[in-house]
UniProtKB/TrEMBL annotation:
This is Phosphoadenosine phosphosulfate reductase. Belongs to the PAPS reductase family. CysH subfamily. One of its GO terms (molecular function) is phosphoadenylyl-sulfate reductase (thioredoxin) activity. GO terms for cellular component: cytoplasm.
Amino acid sequence: MITQERINELNTLLKDAKPSEIIQKAFELNKEAVVTTNFRPYEAAILHAVASVETAIPVVWCDTGYNTPQTYKHAEKVIKDLNLNVFLYVPKQTSAHRDVVMGIPSVDAPEHALFTEQVKLEPFKRAMEEHKPKVWFTNLRQGQTAFRDSIGIFSVSKDGVLKVSPFYYWSDADLDKYLEENKLPNEFKYFDPTKALENRECGLHA
């Protein structure tokens, strides 16, 4: 387990570092790593950055089953173009079955917690239990939610995994430039069935 003191040191030391330098440092700390994605907007940046340092890194894709056709097409293109080592995790119940018995509950409905557990949290827990990473690369950024504003580039998940966000201080404009320079696609027709608001925490990180 990495100490909070060490995390604070890393966050101070690498505050202005390039994403590639942050990723390299994380691999020096431990090579047992995964990168997670849901192929939401700007995800191609983190996938490209991490795969550029370690091509064979497991890419954990937790698909809720409610993605738009545009997101699925975008995912297929990014996976192919970057030759990603993808491990797909889906809910144990199909979206068609759930639509009949529950539908997509509003965030205020009593069923919302169960819905989130089924489509997002359970597949994610299953993925982490199978891969048992010591390092988890993710595309969290400052300004997305109040919780994310407080964590920094390096943090520790509730399960004790070192969480690394190489683009933590980057703006959308910065990422637009990164995507353009590296000829990477982006896709904005993304749907998260567990969130009504863009700035609502998804449950995996808090």
